[in-house]
Predict the 3D structure of the following.
Amino acid sequence: MGGVRLVAEKLDVGHAGRPVLGGVDLTLRAGAVSVLVGPNGCGKSTLLRTVAGLLPPIGGTVTVDGVAPGTLTRRVLSQRLAFLPQSSLTPAGVTVRELVRHGRYAHRGVFGRHTAEDTEAVGWALDVTDAAPLADRRLDELSGGERQRAWLATVLAQRAGVLLLDEPTTFLDLRHQFEVLDVVKRLATEHGIACGVVLHDLTQAAAYADEVLVTAHGRVVATGAPEDVLTPEVIDAAFGIEVSVVRDPGTGYLACFPSRSRSGTH
């Protein structure tokens, strides 16, 4: 596994000084995918926005490449860390290539001129996300999965070493969900990017994560490798549902199936 790119220690996050998640320790390493899972409203997105430097922490510390995000300008931070929110507005009439070129804003010179380095970065981002065939198509004409790959290419064009993705598979059908997650896994394993991802699907988390953080009840319930963390006991503690966890004999991936809720309903 690669070197440490982002560290959060004893981090408390929330809104207007009101904590929703506390005491978080999180380490993102180059070449690894860390997935955050937990019930709705448990603070996963707030945590991601805080480590991205978009929200101030209530307590604790965050460093990116050893530096606190709050001490960096937005432009300099964007050269180190890229963040893709749950949803983004789709600009009318903009092609995929034009959108991805916007991802280079952190690297442009004083006059905002595109350089050969910008062109190379845009081409790389389009290629690695399999979005190159879409480059000259308008964003508002694409399917949900194609559009998500275009947005992913846009943040990748920043050429940051840390990539944070907040529920990147939301609103996508099953095939497009796996396409996007395949791209994320390649970014980590083949390009050494440290990836932090919020997901809802526990089976997808098990298949793609090197490390899973389970959050619930205002804290991190468990952290570790999927097989150590995604257990019936931890899932029951976090989600309040009894599950069976089995390993697919073909892929070796874990899968979670509900048994019954705490109330005993089926």
Notes: The first strand starts at residue 4 and ends at 15.
